[in-house]
What does this fold into?
Amino acid sequence: MSLWEYANPRRFMALTDRIVGPAFVLSGVALAVGLIWGFFFTPDDFRQGSTVKIIYLHVPSAMMAINIWVMMLVTSLVWLIRRHHVSVLAAKAAAPLGVGMTLVALFTGAIWGQPMWGTFWAWDPRLTSFLILFLFYLGYIALWAAIEDPDTAADLTSVLCLVGSVFAFLSRYAVNFWNQGLHQGASLSLDKEENISDVFWIPLLVCIAGFVLLFLALVLMRTRTEIRRRRVHAITIRERAT
Amino acid sequence: MIPDLGAYAVEVSLAYLVSFVVIGALVWSTLRANSKTKRELDEAEGRWRNE
It folds into this structure.
């Protein structure tokens, strides 16, 4: 069976109908376990004190903010190359979730930064690229809203997505390019020496799994909503024509 | 049960509160839009079948 068969809206709706519910339940369980574990049952950091508990929200939301744009990039490319409507509707559906995740990452980062760096904000490479990514998300949503013809809107937003992907990758790798920023290096690493302690790492992984599952449930549900909205629009046009 | 957050209680609590509000708003808006379009599609298809 080919993946492209799910570009058919009916097949997509049938498949996702079975996935959304379990994804919601699993995300709720993972988030509850991860956040309760992290908040109540992990120690304070010897330098950062209790502010380390913000990591369970900040790191997963920042990871999602970047990866949602990457997902939008892939689905936009599928639209531009193969013209599958479900694909571009998935990108459209993901954008508000990306805004939310970027907002959480920026806010929790600022709240964490104030006691640790002495400031809520600095024009650090990672922070700045994240702010630009946030503005790209808003621009992407505004562009969809501004253009009436759905295919033209899909084309132009897909091109915007390609341009914005520079900042998504910059947000991810900024800490590797420039060392002079305030922001610390990546919290998670395959190198045991560089990775954070297991006592923080394991509940953080559970929280990341919870965020990924929540995104999966929400983006599938929102894509289903977009498909239904298109169908209502098509019926309304047919009614007007007859 | 509540951990002692020490000098950073306000910062940590605020980070959790705002994050829950934003994530809650995303979930709520998604569920609301889903049920609204489902109802609209049922109505539109009902009209279409009756014509």
Summary: Chain A touches chain B through 37 residues (CB under 8 Å). Residues 22-122+195-241 of chain A form one domain.
